[in-house]
Amino acid sequence: VGERWSGGQAAAALALAGAIALGAGCAAASNGLVAEGKRLFQEQGCYGCHTVGASGTPIATDLSRIGARYARRDLEAWLRDPRQQRPTAHMPRIELQPDEARALAAYLATLR
Ligand code: HEC
What's the 61 CA to ligand 1 centre distance in angstroms? Predict the structure, then answer.
């Protein structure tokens, strides 16, 4: 009785498999970026002023849920130059390469 797959179904199944493969590739790439951002968070001394969860220093804002409050591109803009985003900012401008700011913003955006 087994019904044969129509060409349409087969194409749909192939497209789905492709989408899954692509999705996995993207997820892996962005996981790499997030891991890099997490590492930079330590390396660049962000922990010296901020807390994330139980670690860090509670001088400045707790960043545990920062990703729920700001979009990734806003975080990136902030990291490039806090004072340009908010003239009264006390956070110092930290020397970051563009890809470092991108990685840090990707990491911060996951904190929610
Ligand atoms: C010398 C202390 C200091 C260091 C180091 C520091 N920050 Fe900040 N940060 C602040 C202060 C103070 C604020 C609060 C806003 C302001 O500047 O008045 C802030 C605000 C922020 C905000 C916005 C929070 C909000 O609620 O608006 C983000 C995001 C942030 N910092 C991320 C970072 C990251 C990532 C690093 C490491 C690259 C870092 N900070 C390093 C002091 C610091």
Answer: 7
Contact 50, 62 (CB under 8 A): yes
Q: Which of 39, 40, 34 is nearest to 94 (CA)?
A: 40
Q: Using CA positions, which residue lies closest to atom 41 of ligand 1?
A: 46
Burial class (CB in 10 A: 0-12, 13-18, 19+), 105: buried
31 with 106: CB under 8 angstroms? no
Which pLDDT tens digit goes with each residue over 48-100?
A: 999 999 999 999 999 999 999 999 999 999 999 999 999 999 999 999 999 99
* C-alpha to C-alpha distance for 71 and 105, rounded to whole angstroms: 9
**Residue of minimum CA distance from atom 37 in ligand 1:** 46
Could you tell me if the CB of 23 is within 6 A of ligand 1?
Answer: no
Burial class (CB in 10 A: 0-12, 13-18, 19+), 80: middle
